[in-house]
């Protein structure tokens, strides 16, 4: 949560720049999407980069 108590989503800039360098448009997927919205989004993209460890 941030200083105001809100949950936050963020991504390191290096991942965003790598997607752009490869010709893509980086779009962050919020962690709290409902399943129907997530399925709708997935049908509109060509690929997904999952970062993290």
Query: What portion of residues belong to β-strands?
Result: under 5%
Q: Rg from C-alpha positions?
A: 13 Å
Low-confidence parts lasting 5 or more residues at pLDDT below 50? none
Structural class: mainly alpha
- SS summary, helix count: 2
H/E order of the elements? HH
Count of all domains: 1
Question: What would a concise description of this structure say?
Answer:
The chain has 53 residues and is mainly α.
Protein architecture, described:
32% of the residues lie in helices and 0% in strands. It is an all-alpha fold and 53 residues long. It has one domain (1-53). The protein starts with 12 loop residues before the first helix and ends in an 11-residue tail after the last helix.
Keywords:
2 helices; flat; about 55 residues; mainly alpha; single chain
List the helices and strands and how they pair.
Blueprint: H1 13-21, H2 35-42
């Amino acid at each position: 949560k941030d200083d105001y108590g809100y949950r936050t989503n963020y991504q390191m800039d290096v991942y965003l720049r790598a997607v752009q360098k490869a010709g893509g448009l980086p779009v962050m997927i919020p962690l709290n999407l409902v399943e129907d919205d997530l399925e709708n989004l997935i049908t509109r993209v060509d690929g997904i980069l999952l970062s993290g460890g």
